[in-house]
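for ur thesis appendix - Plant heme peroxidase family profile domain-containing protein. copy paste whatever u need, i formatted it the way the template wanted (i think)
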Amino acid sequence: MAGGAEPSSSASSRKGKGRAGNDSPQHDTSETTPLLSESTVTSGYGGSSVKDAAANESPRSPPTPSSRSSSVSSSSSKRSTVVGWPSIVAGTVLAMMIVVIIIGAFFVPVAVEEYAKQAAVLEPTNLSLESITATGVRARVQANFRLDGSRVKQDASRRIGRAATWIVGTLGTDETLVSVYLPEYDNILLGTAALPPFTVNVIDGQNTAVDVITELALGDADGIRTIANTWLEGKLDTVRLVGKADISLRSGRLPLGTHGVVESIVVEANNVPTMPAYNISRLNFHDAPGSGDDRKVVGVDVTITSYNEHPIQVDVPELGFDVLVPNCNAIDPFIPVAQAVTDPIPVRPRSEVAVSVHGIIEEIPDSLTRACPDSTSSPLDQFLKGYLNGEPPNVLVRGRKVPGSGTPEWIEEILSSIAIPVPFPGRSFDDLIKNFSLTDVDFQLPDPLADPDDEDGKPTVSGTIEVLASLPSELNLDLNVTHVRATADVLYKHKKLGVLNIKEWQRAESTRIEEENGDVSLLVKSRANDVPLTITDQDVFTSVLQALLFGGRDVILDIDAAVHVKVKTVLGELVLKDVPTKGKIPVKPLPVDSLPEKLRPRVDNLRVLKTTETAIHIEAMVNITNPTPYSATIPYFTAHVVKNGTIIGDATVKNVRITTGTIENLLISIIWEPARFGEEGRKIGVDLVSGFLSDQNITLTAKAHESSIPSVPILGRALSNFDFEVSAPKLNLPSDDPDDKGRFIRDATFHLFSSTATFILVSPFRHDTLLLEWVNATAYYNHTEPVGHIDYYEPFAVRPGGTRTPRLPVDWSMGSIGYGAVRRALGGELKLDARADVTIRIGSYRETLWYVGQGIGAAIRP
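the 3d part is after this line
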């Protein structure tokens, strides 16, 4: 339409009609409700709401019956009403009626003018927008008009006014064209209203029912857009409307001439209507076919409901909108992401209004995913952060033209230049994660030479992550998670244990799961490799270890993570940053009570690396069984070897790979120096080595200390609070007989007549020679009956593999049961036991040990 065009009076008369009567119809409460009452604020989808446009407006109580009627005060007071066509029409009608009364009683103009302004009461009862036309709207205004003389303060004016209006009785108008201007906005034309002829009763107390149908034509579209945007920005403090009309009056059939009328209305901020409260009752994202054969887009269906509290009825045609999201900064232009159209909207008085909106997202603009200046976040990241945190971000909705829609051009022109910020419904993701598990866990300790402050100086964790996440009901898209990375706080009993930092993208795959109850979940699997674990609280870590060692049940760790996700959609791949994720990881406890027996360690090889007079440095190959579900890589770890609270040595492992199940050829370095803590330590050491050589079950304590893991001292300090009981490994000496693998003495030959004996000794050392400098031994039959005694001071060597000793002199226990058994076994074999004290020497290290052997096969020879 052409802005500012005014329809002619003749055209208006053919389109409109007026009806007035002197009857006083009974109206119910709804009929006397003001045309635009105060708006209330109702909760929207996800808890959003729309506030009053006037930010500093104070709360107001509901209108009382007296405040529902429109009155005219003295000429010096400012009139206030509501912005919009209902106010313009009602105010104009009231002004015309007052002028009619004043002019109709021209012989006492001052008194009658005072009377008319104070006594006139207009009660609007209904406003319906009959239709939307090519130039504006057709509206029907229904109201009750009367003069109430009791409202006039001056007695003289009241008496004169009542008399004058009684004489006049009724006043009428011809059809009239009213123009409304905005003087503070270059006096632009807001619009015109074509009012049909009507007649009112001006006798005090007589009610006239006014029923007017009028054509409301749009004026200057640019001016309307300006004031609309100012209102939407909350900057509209006051607005002054000026209505102008030439009114032709008559009293009965007597014409009273044509009179020019100018009426000014000032609208205060607290009388400006609010944006209607609304609720997004349905929001659905789904895949939809695009314009091409194989092309797909993302469709969005939204249902918005609001309550029309006004007596307004209209059918709104299809409307088109662009949806835009905020850019990096407030001064940057918004980014268009979607287009939407509405279904035709039927608006009925004082009833729920449902608006169905259908939109499509055809592509993801580069500006939406590009990182903002001096930041790693993009506008999409900022938008999603608010959405996922339940903080509704604002989107901008701007009207647009829809080709072939049939919507009047003037509506599209106005809407296309008006942008309304709308809170997008956010949601909390507290219940997003249904299940979070970490399996196939693999720990890796850092290089001992690494700087503790570097990433290489932190222990790492690898594992298979499985996340079962609930998909929001409004998200019905075909999503495929391809990669993930995250930074996660690890907590135990709500206290922070440490931080897992998955810096590199990890490959992932996802599966959509339709559940029986109708819920939809997404199962995401990913293998996280070598993720640095920074332990931040030693006390919390100690508590976790204590629970793992002695709790006897799963230890539950909480994960509070910010996850970056690469998601493949029909529009391409998106990177979602800082998706809040919470989950729980059950950690299996360690079988501490049965650990010594479940480890089942066995020594396969011993090598002497260095000796001193009080210490020996040994390297051993050990086979063990890992009874836990965890694996680990250990570049370096050292611990004290403790017995009865006394440190007797140190054990160190380097570059060890611990897997589940059986672990073979585990290289352990042991520094054996029990004497450094005095005679008590030496005695403990002697007993341990003697029991070890005697194939006895030996239990030792491994105790970590601050330097156990040099690059992570906090881990060593935490582990030092616990003693780990382990079984000393069994000797695994060469033998075809499994029962002989742990025996230091294998075969013995006793020569009865020469009173000598020889033995086959199997050294535990495969590369080093062991010297026996003194042997003081006694052989027994049936465990307790002595057979003979050996006391030999000549050193001899025990080389790697089996070594036969020289003939050692035997002092027989003549007359004993044991000696008798030997004589009876002459030429055969006899099982004997042995107890001995032996002085051994390896390099510079010398020690006297004891030995107990049982079931030694002895050949008895002449």
